Every structure is written in C-alpha cells, then in structure tokens.
Amino acid sequence: MTMFITFEGIDLAGKSTQVQLLSEYLMKKGYRVVTLREPGGTEVSEKIRSILLEPENQLNPFSELFLFEAARSEIVSKVIKPLLQQGTLVICDRFWDSTIAYQGYGRQLPIDFIEKCNYYASEGLEPDLTFFLDISLDAMFQRMEVKSADRFESENRDFLSRVMDGFRELAKRYNYRTYIINGADSIENIHKQIVEIIENKLSEKDGETT
Ligand code: ADP
Ligand code: TYD
What we know:
This protein has helices spanning about 15-30, 45-55, 60-85, 95-105, 110-120, 135-145, 155-175, 185-210; strands at about 5-10, 35, 90-95, 130-135, 180. By secondary structure, it is of the alpha/beta class. Helix 3 packs parallel to helix 5 (about 110-120) and helix 4 crosses helix 7 (about 155-175). The relative contact order is 0.20. The structure holds adenosine-5'-diphosphate (ADP) and thymidine-5'-diphosphate. Adenosine-5'-diphosphate binds near residues 12, 13, 143, 186 and 187.
C-alpha cells in the first residue's frame, strides 16, 4: 500500500497535531507509516529550514523560494520517493501547496513559475490526498505564543491573509485531491473526519490492487 498524504494550512492550523494522530492510527492498523515535514527531513533540508525560519534572516523572495525548492528536491529524491517505492505510507506536514500559498499569494511571486519549480523539485510527485485545515486569522493569533514566533508567524496580517486566501483558492484548484477541514473544530472531531476519509481512500486503493 502506498499513498502520499499532505497536510496544509496556515501556521498553527493544527497540522502537526493531526499528522501525529493519523500516523498513530495508521500504525495501529499495521501500515508502515513515515511522517515528515517541509522544509526538513534530511540533514541538508533541516539546515535550509534553519536559514528559512531564523527571524534575523532578511531574504529576498526569490532566494526564499529557491531555498524551499532546494529543501524539497532533497527530501523528495532521497526520502519520499524511496519510501513510496517500498510501499510505505508517507504523511508530510506541508508540501508544494504551501509554496504557492506563501511565496505565490503571500510574497506575490509569479504562480506559474512556482508551479514549474514545484514540479521539477518534486520530480512530478503530487500528493494523492491533501487535508487543508482551514482556520481564521483570529483563531491563528489566539493560538500564537508571540515569544516563539518564527519568521513567517511574525509576518503582518495582510501577508497572512493573502496566504490564507491562497490556500482556499488552491483547495478549489486541486479539488480532486484536497479535503477542506474546519480547523476550528475539536482535535478529536477533526481526527474522526480525517480517519473516515482515509478509510474510504484505502478501501478504494485496496480495490484497485485486488
Ligand atoms: P501547526 O502544525 O498547523 O502549526 P499545531 O498542530 O502545532 O499546528 O497546533 C498549534 C497549536 O494549536 C497547539 O498548541 C495545539 O495544541 C493547538 N491545536 C491544534 N489543533 C487544535 C484544535 N482543533 N483546536 C484547538 N487548538 C488546537
Ligand atoms: P513550520 O513551523 O513547519 O510550520 P507551522 O508553523 O505551520 O508548524 O514552519 C514552516 C514555515 O515555512 C511556515 O510558516 C510556512 C513556511 N513555508 C513557506 O513559506 N513555503 C513553503 O514552501 C513551505 C513548505 C513552508
């Protein structure tokens, strides 16, 4: 069984909480599961992550884009593709939708160019299933501890509002793989909805292979 699942949404939407719960659920069911996050997942990608998130680093928007794509190219070629080839379920906290939302809608770089970069950096690998956790900016600020804010979390409200609009647009554009989940719901309810969707997908996949 192989499936590439991604979680998307603005910071603090609840992605890592749900990634963790889903991975525990699937492991209990006996699936081989690996969870990853972007940017990150290899030694080099984690180094790139530190450069990207360090609040002191003032990066030109194109440098920022290319660093995210460099981190992606590493994790896809060295980790994600080999895992999928071995039949492991891969769950990734953020993937290429985040680049379009943040660098495209947020920084206002050309979206068609970012799509090309995403395509080449991920060797054409697109998620089978994406959960978009949708929360309002107010809910995000309520969840935020200002002390721990990284470079993106400390961006201004206009930037974050463009990013959020971007995710909502992408959920429409990629509706064949994206499920929109109300991130303001309780952790348990969100998990239940995700499990239901996953169970349906897994039985579809089982049907394909039998
Ligand atoms: P992300 O990975 O999207 O940044 P996290 O999963 O780290 O988000 O969650 C951010 C914060 O919000 C954490 O303190 C977490 O406990 C809390 N949280 C996560 N999901 C919910 C939810 N559904 N309702 C309320 N708080 C939540
Ligand atoms: P992270 O702490 O992983 O996200 P979260 O706060 O949601 O747990 O931080 C990653 C940051 O990088 C996040 O603010 C979104 C941003 N980002 C981009 O701007 N472009 C991208 O392509 C990716 C993958 C992330």
